[in-house]
Amino acid sequence: MAATLQGKRIAFLAADGVEEVEYTKPREAVEQAGARVELVSVRPGSIQSFNHLDQSRTYEVDVTTKEADAGAYDALVLPGGVANPDFLRTDPDAVRFVRSFFGAGKPVGVICHGPWTLVEADVVRGRRITSWPSLRTDLTNAGAAWVDEAVVTDHGLVSSRKPDDLPAFCAKIVEMFA
User: Fold this and answer.
1) 9-177 CATH fold
2) Residue 34 DSSP code
3) Which of 83, 108, 142, 165 is the most exposed place for a label (fewest CB within 10 A)?
4) Would you call 170 a catalytic residue per the annotation?
């Protein structure tokens, strides 16, 4: 029997520059498993997604990081894209929101450049994690054990490297969030 997320509320934290497929595919996966998803971002309105370096669609924000309460959600997903986590890690409310999930022991999924926000939240120390290869030094300097694997799980944290890993990442977050 497939994992079900019926009744679960999942936050997707993203800003302008989010890699579209790293937002849409995981969102589809958790919604198909029955979860209710909300897009949390640094400002109201919409965010601009990208397909690599090309602008793609925009997505409506449901709640801002200033208003968001981790206690209202069962899990968190941080998609990648280069600019997206760079915007998030400079927003104190986004960093607080992320840190709250780890403090509460709630599951978190992160892919590609998404771990930059985890570094800023100081939640990777002592954890095994993967990411886009260019983050290896940042994660290692923040105390993480970086590995080059499609999907890595460590005490409720699911991490993945890139869009090619999305099928495995999506399956693992649904399993972990259930």
Assistant:
1) Rossmann fold (3.40.50)
2) T
3) 83
4) no
